[in-house]
Specification:
The chain has ten helices and no strands. It has 199 residues and is an all-alpha fold.
Length: 199
């Protein structure tokens, strides 16, 4: 199933064929509209004059020059300076820990817990982002080691509309956005979130 995360055919095609671009899109999905975050890798590749993103190139790129690329205009992210640094740190980790092959992060993992552990250890990731990406890999990329749904937490539930893992078209994007807005409203009102322990 082709990815439909940015709602832009060319940007989604890059995410579809380039695992590092998909990883970068997940990294950028923070305090920024989801579809623009996942369109970011294509914009970055375009400004670098590339058809795909090379972790080795980004790992060794001049940091200040990379910040300028992120600033645009238009900016690749709401926080171009910090996100340029995070993308570079992510590239360094992929080069140093996985020999520049992003797919090695999830290829032939023993189980869902190991997949989650590897993702959570990446720069700019953490528990929630690792859970969401675990769900995305399982639901849309066919990466389904034993226990992947459990490792993804609520994001791994079948039929949910909680995160980018559940976005497969424009209507599902709307449903995920509605879910997120409802959660924010609950938090603002001081109500317990769905599934949260009481007391």
């Amino acid at each position: 199933m082709p990815l439909c995360l940015s709602q832009d055919a060319d940007a989604d095609a890059l995410l579809d064929r380039d695992p590092f671009a998909l990883l970068v899109g997940m990294l950028l999905d923070q305090q920024f509209p989801m579809e623009r975050a996942f369109a970011g890798p294509a914009l970055l590749a375009q400004r670098l004059g590339r058809t795909e993103l090379d972790p080795r190139e980004l790992a060794s790129y001049d940091p200040e020059a990379l910040v300028q690329i992120f600033r645009g205009p238009p900016a690749i992210h709401r926080y171009p300076g910090s996100m340029a640094a995070r993308v570079q740190a992510l590239a360094v980790a992929v080069v140093e820990q996985y020999d520049g092959d992003t797919g090695l992060i999830w290829r032939d993992v023993e189980d869902g817990r190991e997949l989650f552990r590897r993702l959570a250890a990446l720069p700019g990731f953490g528990t929630q982002k690792a859970q969401i990406f675990t769900a995305l890999l399982g639901k849309q990329r066919g990466v389904t080691p034993t226990g992947w749904r459990e490792a993804a937490g609520g994001y791994g539930e079948d039929g949910s509309f909680r995160s980018v893992a559940d976005v497969v078209d424009a209507p599902s994007l709307v449903r995920v956005r509605e879910y997120k807005q409802a959660r924010k409203a609950e938090a603002k009102a001081g109500k317990p979130t769905a599934g949260a322990p009481k007391g």
